[in-house]
Amino acid sequence: VQLQASGGGLVQAGGSLRLSCAASGRTFSFYTMGWFRQAPGKEREFVAAISRSGGSTNYADSVKGRFTLSRDNAADTVYLQMNSLKLEDTAVYYCAARFLGSATMTSVDYDYWGQGTLVTVSS
């Protein structure tokens, strides 16, 4: 499956952005989807994941209550709505797909990765 992430940009602290990840090439509903991020000089970290049906989500503690992950299986797309953005949310955000697995927080569980989209939060 090919993944194309979009929606990143520059936003002031407290603002919002919505990231999208469009999938192509395989049956989208077979894939658990996740978002990870990597800030400069830091390791990649888990942000959120959603089950194949969209009925179950998992969030990192750092984004709970601020980020919402959803999916539209008819459109082969997942959406990460990011509200109340903080300076520490600045990172490259990557979407990832896991074939037939659960919505885990571990990057090695994911089989396919998008190219990343940069989110910069300014003060």
SSE blueprint:
Blueprint (H helix, E strand, L loop, with lengths): L1 E5 L2 E4 L4 E8 L6 E8 L6 E6 L6 E3 L7 E6 L4 E6 L8 E9 L12 E2 L3 E6 L1
Parallel strand pairs: 2-11
Antiparallel strand pairs: 1-3, 3-8, 4-5, 4-9, 5-6, 7-8, 9-10, 9-11
Low-confidence spans: none
Number of DSSP helical runs: 0
- Identify the overall geometry: globular
Helix content: under 10%
Sheet-strand content, in percent, reads over 45%
Give the beta-strand count. Answer: 11
The structural class is: mainly beta
The helix/strand series, from N terminus to C terminus, equals EEEEEEEEEEE
Largest sheet: 7 strands, mixed
Task: Note down, in words, how this protein is organized.
With 123 residues, this protein is an all-beta fold. Helices cover 0% and strands 51% of the residues. It contains no helices and eleven strands. It has strands at residues 2-6, 9-12, 17-24, 31-38, 45-50, 57-59, 67-72, 77-82, 91-99, 112-113, 117-122. The strands form two sheets. Strands 2, 4, 5, 6, 9, 10 and 11 form a seven-stranded mixed sheet that branches. A four-stranded antiparallel sheet has the order 1-3-8-7, with no helix packed on it. It starts with a strand and ends with a strand. The model has no long low-confidence stretch (mean pLDDT 96).
